[in-house]
Amino acid sequence: MTSTSQFQNANLLPEEDLLNVILADLKRTVREYTTATTESACPSVRQMFTQLTDSTLQLQGQLFQLLSSQNMYTAPSKATRTEVDKKLQEAQQTQQQLQQFTQQRTAQMSSGSQAPQANMQQNAGNHTYS
């Protein structure tokens, strides 16, 4: 081994650490793609980020399986069924509240948007321009 390659090898992270950094980065990337998907107004951009999310999730899953099979990944402690059920119930309640809120706001905007349009049409003739 040459002194240059010895120097390069000495400065690299151990393989396990490097792979765990990549795994963490893939998880972060999925979160970013998911955010971009939910904030995209353009259907083609939304579809692109959905595809990127899916392919990144597949890659993350493959890397996780590799790390797990080599005992290079320490899984978090297991949750009890009660804890999982509680979190699921909280998530379902939040989702239901968001759906109700969205429906209420949509209804308000639909009924409220007709009145401002009528006012704008009435006021359109009242403006003078200098």
UniProtKB/TrEMBL annotation:
<keyword id="KW-0946">Virion</keyword>
<feature type="region of interest" description="Disordered">
    <location>
        <begin position="77"/>
        <end position="130"/>
    </location>
</feature>
<keyword id="KW-0167">Capsid protein</keyword>
<dbReference type="Pfam" id="PF07875">
    <property type="entry name" value="Coat_F"/>
</dbReference>
<dbReference type="InterPro" id="IPR012851">
    <property type="entry name" value="Spore_coat_CotF-like"/>
</dbReference>
<feature type="compositionally biased region" description="Low complexity">
    <location>
        <begin position="90"/>
        <end position="108"/>
    </location>
</feature>
<feature type="compositionally biased region" description="Polar residues">
    <location>
        <begin position="109"/>
        <end position="130"/>
    </location>
</feature>
<feature type="compositionally biased region" description="Basic and acidic residues">
    <location>
        <begin position="80"/>
        <end position="89"/>
    </location>
</feature>
<protein>
    <submittedName>
        <fullName>Spore coat protein</fullName>
    </submittedName>
</protein>
<dbReference type="InterPro" id="IPR012347">
    <property type="entry name" value="Ferritin-like"/>
</dbReference>
